[in-house]
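I'd like us to work through together how a protein chain folds, taking it slowly. To get us started, please write out a protein record for me. Go ahead whenever you are ready, and we will take it from there:
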Amino acid sequence: MSEISGVRLDSWVWSVRLFKTRSAAAAACRSGHVRVNGVSAKPAHLLRVDDEVRMRVDGRERIVVVARLIRKRVGAPEAALCLIDKSPPPPPREVLLAVPQRDRGAGRPTKRERRELDRLRGFNED
């Protein structure tokens, strides 16, 4: 069996189960959410072994290193062998639940409320 020299980025990311569909992987590449070795990459970018792929999936930064090249989608245990996950751990669930939410039907925030929210989030213009 001959060794694969390169695989399309969108195909590999879908094959190792980082995206649910190949079209979703291609859309993420086109919108700039996927970077290969620090450079924004198109869906047809050819991946090689030891390339670092950074992507934004479900609001979380994922960092993976290509360990093996595959073209077809495989089972989860075999897909885990094709990548080395260097992603930071997800934030604790308590932190995610602590995000303040506006009351339903409260309308748009006033200018004063918006400034308070910006101050809370650390977006000060000082």
